[in-house]
Design goal:
With 254 residues, this protein is an alpha/beta fold. It is built from 11 helices and 7 strands. It has one domain: Vaccinia Virus protein VP39 (Rossmann fold, 3-Layer(aba) Sandwich), CATH 3.40.50. α4 links the parallel β1 and β2. α7 crosses α9. The protein is globular and about 55 Å long. The two termini are 35 Å apart.
Length: 254
């Protein structure tokens, strides 16, 4: 994670959950999708790497009711401070690189059955090294789920933000190849979540730089982009499809 990205998450930590909970059912649907994709069961040892405030981890814990705490890994103290104290959640202040390299060890001695990286892989510089390191921490029936946006999205952003996102976002097929190189049986599938949000609330989200790519723009550039957005999107409620790649890696049998 770059210093710029770390500063972004430190700044948005206090309002992060408010920005993303415009539709509580969205979070529930996403949690159930991840449980389904990884075939999670309550006895699994699970790590959510890049969990942020634990918004989705909390729902995952509520839906799955794990018999051991989910390890909530994040490198930003301000984000991890928002994680509620709960028996089913165990915070670990660390980056994906720290965990995968062994610089920060697992609190428990045993291997992990499941690793989730939801919308955090694009912040990792050495993706191959991190995924290989995480793969080495898996049990014999372990699996990894990397949830990521595709390289082109339908979010109602201004054009410069779309262009910058497409320039920065890794391709899901590349992540499939990296998981395969790490020795896992890898594949990708896609899921769509229908989204509806009030236009003025979305303007506030843009102003708050709710996506990390918006941190790429100066105050004046962001203001100009929001003006462009207001001219392009006039309906009081915005409706769009949120497409996600679910990239999976499974320990090979034998």
């Amino acid at each position: 994670m770059t210093d710029q990205t770390a500063e972004h998450y430190h700044r948005v930590a206090a309002s992060y959950d408010d920005l993303w909970t415009y539709d509580p059912d969205y979070v529930r649907q996403f949690s159930r999708a991840m449980i389904d994709e990884l075939r999670l069961i309550p006895s699994d040892a699970i790590a959510d790497v890049g969990c942020g405030t634990g918004l989705y981890t909390r729902q995952l814990c509520e839906d799955l009711r794990p018999t051991r705490p989910i390890l909530c890994v994040d490198p930003t103290p301000a984000m991890l401070d928002r994680l509620p104290a709960a028996p089913g959640l165990r915070p670990l202040l660390a980056g994906a690189e720290d965990l995968a390299s062994g610089h920060v060890g697992l609190p428990d001695a045993g291997p992990l059955d499941a690793v989730i990286m939801k919308e955090s892989i694009h912040h990792v510089a050495d993706r191959g090294g991190v995924l290989a390191g995480l793969a080495s921490m898996l049990s014999r029936h372990g699996r990894i789920l990397v949830v990521m946006l595709p390289t082109s999205i339908q979010h109602p952003l201004f054009q410069a933000a779309h262009d910058r996102f497409e320039a920065l976002q890794p391709d899901p097929d590349e992540v499939v190849d990296l998981l395969d190189a790490a020795g896992l049986r890898a594949s990708v599938s896609y899921r769509t979540f229908h989204t509806a949000i009030e236009r003025e609330r979305y303007v506030h989200m843009l102003e708050s730089r709710y996506m990390s790519v918006l941190h790429e723009f100066s105050e004046s550039e962001l203001a100009a982009g929001i003006d462009q957005f207001r001219r392009a999107y006039r309906d009081p409620v915005l409706r769009f499809d949120d497409h996600f790649a679910f990239v999976k890696g499974w320990v090979r049998p034998g």
